[in-house]
Amino acid sequence: MEASTTTGRSPGGQDLWSYVAEGWRHVAAHFAGDPYVLGYDLLNEPWAGEAYTDQSTLDRALTNTYRVIAARIRTTDTVHTIWTEPAIT
Prior knowledge:
Number of helices: 2
Structural class: mainly alpha
Shape: globular
Largest sheet: 2 strands, parallel
Number of strands: 2
Strand content: 5-15%
Helix content: 40-55%
Oligomer: single chain
């Protein structure tokens, strides 16, 4: 499953949001046992620019993206909180 409908590829040709999710997995693996880390804020004030004209489409894409990233984080850290934010319109 691709993380969102936004097009884009990583330098290795991977879906861009899957690439971001893998980056978050690496961060979570590093901090998984750290008692001083409260959690992970996946995207700070996400803004889609002109990519989406319909808020409901943007919300679905962002929700799916969050699910993909959170699932990847949970492969290495099942304890810390994961924060998500709605899109800024």
